[in-house]
Amino acid sequence: AGDARLFVIEQGGVIRIVRDGELIPEPFLDLRDRVNADGSERGLLGLAFHPDFADNGLFFVNYTGAEGASFISRFTLSPDPDRADPSSEVNLLRVSQPYRNHNGGGLAFGPDGYLYIGLGDGGSAGDPLGNGQRLDTFLGKLLRVDVDSGDPYAIPPDNPFAGGGGLSEIWAYGLRNPWRFAFDSLTGFLFIGDVGQGNWEEIDFQPAGAAPPANYGWNLREGMHEFAGGETPDMVNPVTEYSHAE
Fold this sequence. Notes:
Distance between the termini: 36 Å
Helix content: under 10%
Mean pLDDT: 94
Largest sheet: 5 strands, mixed
Radius of gyration: 18 Å
Low-confidence stretches: none
Strand content: 35-45%
Order of helices and strands: EEEEEHEEEEEEEEEEEEEE
Shape: globular
Structural class: mainly beta
């Protein structure tokens, strides 16, 4: 809050700063030595600053790295406030990706101070591995972790599977490729942009304080329309959908 700088993520692996409309020549962070950006949906995909960044200099990135895996990592500001330390990387999660697309990429801190992480269903088309509805994989999920406790993180005690039944990091599932999501700063409402298969794109919604887990339906449904078919009692409709005809 109150930082007038604009931080720009380049898929190729660089974060740059624009101040007062002018691009600062030196990158804020250059990760091209470890980011796998092959021109598809891979690359440096997400950035989230710790709520106390002004005091602790911590921020988090989501990128495709070695062997095509998704890396969720923490970095630290250098003594120069316009430069981060590329050698400060602490990896929180490394998630294998079976295909080249649907890496997700979204990162955001919620009003609760926890880090939310968006991961796609693993790629190909139609979710051939059924990851969206599986609870034993991070793929096709929105994860929620406490980066201020544990090593390298802790599980919030109110996560839906903190006591078992699924991976404890999972907050929501049934997502195809949640590459961008955001919390409304006034209400705490969560909005998720999820990519459709071929016909229907959707916007998913979660009110503040909603009781998880939320199952947004993929791959049983695409938007509000049957895809693989089948129903579960906890399936949540998108708040809106739009077709490719639009």
